[in-house]
Every structure is written in structure tokens, then in C-alpha cells.
Amino acid sequence: xxxxxxxxxxxxxxxxxxxxxxxxxxxxxxxxxxxxxxxxxxxxxxxxxxxxxxxxxxxxxxxxxxxxxxxxxxxxxxxxxxxxxxxxx
Length: 89
Fold this sequence. Notes:
Blueprint: H1 13-24, H2 31-59, H3 62-74, H4 76-84
């Protein structure tokens, strides 16, 4: 794990109060841990949106789609075997 870096944020007092309640009731180990987890979850959501955007963009690219279809066709036989549960190679 990389070293932590101190940063300063201005957050609404009611949000900090909520996190203190979460700590008091042992839902999170600390306010810092709760904020870290929230930021990690938010980052995952943004990354998912970015990936979706890239996939939509790729789907509109005729060269990409031709390549994808060509590869899918090349693996049709293998895919059919896998669907049958044939694990003999």
C-alpha cells in the first residue's frame, strides 16, 4: 500500500457529524476511513462511467467493430464447444 498523503477538505458540518455517529456506532473505524472508502467507491463509479463511454465510442468505430466481428467469428467453434461443456482439448 502506498503512503498516505494529508489533504484538507471543506465538508459540510452535518456530513462530518454523520460520520462521527457512524464511528460511535462502529459502522466505520474512523471518519478518515469512512471518507476514504466513500472516495474509493466514487472513483469506481467514475471509472465505470468512463469505461462505458469508451465502449460506446468504440461501438461507433467501424474498424473496431469489423475487427471485433472477425475475432468473434474466429472463435465460434471454440465458443460452441465451451457451451456444450466439452473440456477436452
